[in-house]
Amino acid sequence: MSGTEAEALAELAAREAIRQQLHNYCRAMDRRDDELGYAVWHEDGTADYGAAVFRGSGRDFVDQVSRNHLRRLAHSHQIATVGIEVRGERAVSESYVTVRLRTAVAGGFTEEFYAGRYLDRWSRRDGRWAIDHRVWVLDFDEQDRPVTARLPGGGSRDTADPSYELFRGLRAGI
């Protein structure tokens, strides 16, 4: 394999590792899987969601979201339109994000909707890609909108969700 091919393969592997971490983040938030969420950031990684929301360590942000989700009935995070640039052991990404949060209120449900972007700086340390710093850019939102909703069915907001059994089965060779 030529040097150019090896570099292209390394960049492709970096992009996929970063993309997987972005997916891990959504899974961690929706399943309230704090350990998975912590692993998305480096130990000294930081998050800036604005002064009114959160500024601090990635780990503390995961803890705050996990506590916040306890008062929710359901939540869903999606990431799309991911742009990634890699330079050796460093990278940056912009990811478009949508978040929906459902809350039970007297007489029904309300929903919060957020559309924005994650602007992430990444680095590869000890063979692992993780976030050094994240900035949340809110493009628009809707707050406390009354919704007609069915209660979620079949899933759970923790590691008892059926998806965990699916992945454990593959690892166990089932």
Automatic annotation (TrEMBL):
Cited InterPro entries: NTF2-like_dom_sf, SnoaL-like
Highest taxon in the source lineage: Bacteria
Chain coiled-coil ranges: none
Residue ranges occupied by any SnoaL-like domain in the UniProt entry: 11-134
Residues of the signal peptide: none
SUPFAM superfamilies reported for this sequence: NTF2-like (SSF54427)
Protein known as: SnoaL-like domain-containing protein
Species: Pseudofrankia asymbiotica
